[in-house]
Amino acid sequence: MNIAPAAAPDATTHPTHPTHPTHPTHTSRRPASFWRHTAGIACLGLAGALAGCGGGIYIGIDGSDDDPPQVSLSVSPSAQFERGTIDLFANASDDYAVRRVDFYRFDSLSPGGRPEWIGSDSAFPYELRTTQPDTPDGGVSYSARAIDDVGQVTDSAWVVVDVLP
């Protein structure tokens, strides 16, 4: 039996493992599955840490967590002569985006006894200038309807503008 002596370490071999190369460009090569597994564990740890402190990550792709818009209306002036100018101001917001605000008027002369659409605004600030109608009952009511980017709707409370004689 002929046993060869172990090779002497040199610049191309590892001093304690002669078969292990120490070339300057040598790196530990791990399979891609190792890195995917490691990244998965890191993501789970991050998600657990966020959940533990009450935080979290939400990707709203399906819109299932979308809230309806919020809207309120103010008018100026609160009393006006027939055919006088009324300015309507809607304060509308949404967790994603407000598509537009529609403005409605209701008085004793409204067609069919229903609110009448008088205009829309699709850019902030949401406002509309209109003319006070001729009405015999002394008051005209106005409302704003906010529509968000997925079609959810919220109406403001009605605001009454007194008609001055």
How does this model look, in words?
With 165 residues, this protein is mostly beta strands. 13% of the residues lie in helices and 36% in strands. It has one helix at residues 32-52, and strands at 70-76, 79-81, 85-93, 98-106, 116-121, 126-131, 139-148, 153-155, 159-164. The strands form two sheets. Strands 2, 4, 5, 7, 8 and 9 form a six-stranded mixed beta sheet that branches. Strand 7 (139-148) and strand 8 (153-155) form a beta hairpin.
Compute the number of helices: 1
CATH superfamily of the domain at 70-164: Immunoglobulins
**Helix content range of the residues, please?**
10-25%
The value of Rg in angstroms is 36 Å
Please state the structural category. mainly beta
Query: How many beta strands in the DSSP annotation?
Result: 9
